[in-house]
Design brief:
The structure is a single chain. The chain is an alpha/beta fold. The protein folds into three domains: 133 residues, no CATH class; 213 residues, Rossmann fold (3-Layer(aba) Sandwich), CATH 3.40.50; 147 residues, 3-Layer(aba) Sandwich (Rossmann fold), CATH 3.40.50.2300. Helices cover 40% and strands 13% of the residues. It is built from 17 helices and 17 strands. It has a seven-stranded mixed beta sheet with strand order 12-11-13-14-15-16-17. Strands 7-6-8-9-10 form a five-stranded parallel beta sheet, with helices on both faces. Helix 8 packs across helix 9 and helix 16 crosses helix 17. The longest helix is centred in the first third of the chain and has 43 residues. It is globular and about 95 Å long.
Length: 570
């Protein structure tokens, strides 16, 4: 009898456990679904039904939520923004559900982020208010009045939300920037940099040396601060100033071996062993997409990777590239042709592109931009990777198609083919565009009598200007380089990364959220740096250098480069 009773009790316990597991599983699924809908409301301005959220601004103007989203002002992290003299307060639950005292001033760094220029007025600190509750927050989102009775700014929308929709949005706000991101603990903020084994060490050693030096200097400064903050008054001052992140920094090196299709599993293993807060820098000679996709899926920031083959996307968020690489040259060529007064409205473009990774990036940049402008699709001729574009083949294509412009994405053998077009009995097109990035120094080998129609995409500062900037930024010789060594492109690309990291760590203070790191970078000032004329990230932008020159060669055996366009071509 006791055995039967015990058996019945065991079965009952198992049934209750299974039932409880099902209930908890369903609750977790419901919670995830609620957060998914809340994120869509906050980021995209779309209701669970898929319809736009409707807000009212300035008393009576309806504003669809998908064109006036929460992240437009409060940013993806929910920790607010500063643009010039305009301050947008945090909207994450941790901030909303705590009373706000009336601070005497903003911390110094924050008043300069996104400022329109020197001498711009600092934003005024927000007034004090009691903590929100679910009820007062819902009332404020609908009516625009905070718990103290103060009316919100008229440009802040008042939202028409049903009770269930409001509950979804409030639940998401409570979860927003509520727990520190992976890669940080009580003592250390961890970073990694990614290097692929398709490179010789001389391609990345300068990059690693500069990153190591940055980590060392930052930690030395933090050590000094830690020795000083035994005095409570000094500690308070440092906390208010935001001049230091109270963590040591560490940098791991993630070496990826073998074919790119194997990199994802290697990255997952590195990350499993040691989650990091962000990937900083990194270099690859062949691809970056596996790293890009890994960062997107893990919501892991990746800052300034050095690659000529960035992923071109209008929606991906977590990788900030120095530029669009070769794609940017193709993009610039299309814009330059489009704006030319001598190019007909229905003009014909012959695009000759080599079937290589570089050729595809260049042609994609041209074709995508040409389509977006509304022009007729270019006639594209593809050359196999090991095939040579002979002078005869090029001349035959031009004679047959009679294009108004020829765009040629090819490498070292191209100058010989182009120079043959200067024959007296041949009628060349009005413009031929080539890539300095693909040709390297070979683009200088053009005959004098054909230079007038050859236009070259040039995505860096012109050499004479760059020499002046090298002296300004690095002095006579960067630290760690021997006399006579040239300043590598890797060094120049690492320089803005370190500048951005130094500013971001100061601004981030104790808010160790990955999205906030990216928000801070998007609010930073433009960078005047080596290599590129200007680097900047506005909200939602993922490519820092947005410009490229079109140049021509001057006359003579040592020709100068002559600008035929501004740095940014719209």
């Amino acid at each position: 009898m006791n055995r039967v009773l015990s058996f019945i009790i065991c079965i009952a316990i198992i049934c209750v456990s299974l039932l409880r597991s099902d209930v908890y599983g369903q609750q977790e699924a419901d919670s995830m679904e609620t957060l998914k809908h809340g994120e869509r409301l906050y980021r995209d301005g779309l209701l669970p039904s898929g319809k736009p959220l409707i807000g009212i601004i300035k008393g009576d103007l309806p504003a669809p939520g998908n064109s006036f989203t929460c992240i437009s002002c409060h940013m993806r992290s929910g920790l607010g923004s500063v643009e010039g003299s305009v301050l947008t307060t945090p909207t994450n639950g941790r901030s909303l559900y705590a009373p706000r005292s009336n601070p005497p001033t903003l911390r110094p760094g924050m008043s300069t982020m996104g400022a329109s220029g020197k001498g711009a007025p600092s934003p005024q600190p927000p007034p004090a208010r009691p903590a929100y509750t679910d009820e007062s927050l819902a009332a404020a989102l609908r009516g625009g009045v905070d718990p103290s009775g103060r009316a919100w700014d008229p440009v802040m929308p008042r939202y028409k939300l049903q009770d269930d929709e409001m509950a979804i949005l409030i639940s998401y706000l409570k979860s927003l920037s509520s727990e520190f991101s992976p890669g940080v603990d009580a003592t250390t903020l961890r970073f990694a940099t990614v290097i692929t084994d398709d490179l010789n060490p001389d391609r990345y050693q300068d990059h690693l040396n500069l990153l190591d030096d940055f980590i060392r200097r930052t930690n030395e400064r933090t050590n000094h601060i830690e020795n000083e903050i035994r005095n409570p008054r000094v500690k308070r001052q440092l906390m208010v100033s935001g001049r230091v992140a109270y963590r040591k920094l560490s940098l791991s090196r993630w070496l990826l071996k073998g074919a790119p299709e194997t990199w994802r599993s290697q990255l997952e293993e590195y990350y499993r062993k040691e989650p990091v807060f962000a990937i900083i820098g990194g270099i690859s000679g062949t691809a970056w997409k596996p790293v890009h996709d890994f960062c997107e899926s893990n919501r892991l920031p990746c800052l300034y990777p050095q690659t000529d083959f960035p992923v071109i996307s209008e929606t991906d968020w977590y990788t900030l590239y120095p530029s669009k690489g070769y794609y940017q040259e193709g993009e610039t060529a299309a814009r330059f042709l489009n704006r030319g007064d001598d190019f007909p409205d229905c003009g014909k473009v012959l695009m000759i592109t080599r079937e290589s990774q570089v050729g595809k990036m260049l042609s994609n940049g041209f074709r995508d931009t040409w389509r977006a402008i509304g022009r007729t699709e270019p006639l594209t001729v593809r050359i196999a990777e090991k095939e040579t574009l002979s002078p005869e083949h090029l001349a035959l294509l031009i004679k047959k198609e009679k294009p108004d412009a020829v765009v040629i994405w090819d490498n070292a053998a191209l100058p010989e083919a182009i120079n043959a077009l200067s024959a007296p009995d041949f009628e060349p097109p009005r413009k031929i565009i080539v890539s300095s990035g693909y040709l390297s120094q070979e683009f200088m080998k053009q005959n004098d009598n054909i230079r007038d129609i050859i236009y070259i995409t040039y995505p860096e500062r012109l050499p004479a200007d760059e020499k002046l900037h090298e002296a300004y930024f690095f002095g006579t010789q960067p630290k760690g380089l021997k006399n006579g060594d040239s300043i590598s492109k890797s060094t120049k690309l690492t320089y803005p990364l370190i500048k951005v990291m130094e500013q971001s760590l100061r601004e981030m203070k104790e808010n160790f959220y990955r999205d906030y790191l990216l928000d801070i970078i998007s609010m930073g000032k433009d960078l005047d740096v080596p290599l590129y004329e200007r680097m900047s990230f506005g909200p939602g932008q993922r490519y820092a250098s947005k410009g490229c020159y079109i140049v021509q060669l001057g006359k003579g055996s040592h020709p100068e480069l002559i600008k035929r366009s501004d740095w940014v071509i719209h």
